[in-house]
Specification:
Layout lengths: L1 E5 L3 H12 L5 E6 L2 H7 L7 E4 L8 H11 L4 E6 L5 H6 L4 E4 L4 H28 L3 E4 L5 E3 L11 H12 L5 E2 H8 L5 H20 L7 E4 L2 E4 L3 E3 H11 L4 H10 L14 H21 L4 H14 L4 H13 L3 H19 L5 H12 L1
Parallel strand pairs: 1-2, 1-3, 3-4, 4-5, 6-11
Antiparallel strand pairs: 6-7, 8-10, 9-10
Helix pairs in contact: 6-8, 9-10, 10-12, 11-12, 12-13, 13-14, 13-15, 14-15
């Protein structure tokens, strides 16, 4: 394990180095009293763990930790300080441990063992990614979950970590200013608090992908965040099919299968509503075209009409189209069944009677 030490006191650095050199498998690769110089050296030195002091004059340890993790998400942070009151804040930036000065050998050994296990887990995950060429797939239509290359569901530390991932993923290919991210994810939180929450959530999101073997999943350049991962999704699959404008049976069937619900339907994200409604309308327009302007089979037309009513269940035009379809197919059983369903839905849910043209179609068909 390669360790870099940062403390504004030379004596503290020397003492910490002596304690660490007493442990097997630990190598101190750098000591710095200047935190900014330490940050620069991370580009040149192979490091696993950074030991940080809290109070360092020019920059606070928590601030430096955020700088480090924003650029080097693979590094672990371990705080060594004389100030116990910062323990909670340390863990908010996902530091792996928090040690008090002077270092206790037993406590230090325990922290190093904990860190080593974390590093080994990360290495195993990274090797698995490289060996099996794992990729990610986002299921976003209806219920949401992210699958890794082995079809395991990725677990999120908090709901906000999941939301941040989805927000950045929705804008994939575009960098988003941190102010916009805070306004969308924490609209009612004061700026200082929102900034802290953003840094913590970004750190946790990086950690989530780091544990899956991916470094630098989130880029931060000129106060802009961007997702640095290629992720396929059901949304993208449907979008591709809509773009090529194919009316072949296989393409239509694929869309019907993939569109199990609206975009992020089960998530309560206001920023996703516009995308949700626009995409929903694109799919409905596509299915309407299949129903009215293509030579699709009767079976496929029926599937499209039923899916249209799942997507937009109170659309009276779609109700009429389905009833008319069953009339043309001379399927009185289905006509009667769905007429009763629509009649009940409109009366019970909306408090209105079934439209006259549907009544007329039904009565003429049944009487005939």
């Amino acid at each position: 394990m390669r360790v870099l030490l940062v403390d504004d006191e030379e004596i503290a650095l020397d003492v910490n180095e002596i304690r660490l050199n007493e442990l097997e498998g630990v190598e101190v690769v750098g000591k710095y009293t200047n935190p900014y110089l330490a940050l620069e050296q991370l580009e040149k030195v192979d490091v696993d763990v950074v030991f940080l002091d809290m109070e360092m004059g020019g920059v606070h340890g928590l601030e430096l930790a955020e700088m480090i993790t924003s650029q080097y998400s693979h590094l672990e942070i371990l705080f060594v300080t004389a100030y116990p009151q910062y323990a909670l804040e340390a863990f908010e930036v996902n530091a792996i441990d928090y040690l008090l000065k002077p270092l206790n050998k037993k406590r230090l050994k325990k922290a190093i063992e904990k860190t080593q296990k974390k590093l080994e887990l990360y290495k195993e995950s990274k090797n698995l990614i490289e060996e099996n060429k794992l990729s990610f797939y986002a299921k976003t239509l209806g219920s949401f979950h992210l699958l890794d290359g082995q079809h395991n569901i990725v677990k999120w530390r908090t709901k906000k970590v999941k939301e941040l991932f989805l927000f950045l993923w929705q804008h994939q290919g575009t960098s988003i200013h941190k102010t916009v991210v805070m306004e969308q994810l924490w609209p009612d939180v004061v700026v200082d608090k929102a900034t802290t929450l953003l840094h913590t959530t970004v750190y946790q999101l990086r950690k989530t992908f780091k544990e899956n073997g991916l470094e630098d999943a989130i880029l931060f350049v000129n106060d802009h965040y961007a997702l640095n991962i290629s992720i396929d999704s059901d949304y993208a699959e449907v979008e591709r099919l809509l773009t090529i404008d194919s009316r072949e049976t296989a393409s239509v069937e694929k869309i019907l299968t993939l569109y199990t619900g609206d975009f992020l339907e089960e998530e309560d994200f206001k920023w996703g509503i516009v995308t949700q409604q626009c995409f929903k309308q694109l799919v409905l327009n596509y299915l309407e075209h299949v129903v009215t302007k293509s030579e699709a089979s009767h079976e496929l037309i029926e599937k499209c009409l039923l899916k249209m009513l799942v997507i937009d269940c109170y659309n009276e035009t779609y109700m009429y189209k389905l009833l008319y379809f069953y009339k043309e197919m001379n399927n009185r059983v289905k006509l009667r069944e769905y007429y009763r369903i629509f009649e009940n839905k409109l009366r019970v849910d909306l408090g209105i009677e079934i439209p006259f043209e549907m009544q007329e179609l039904y009565e003429q068909t049944i009487e005939k």
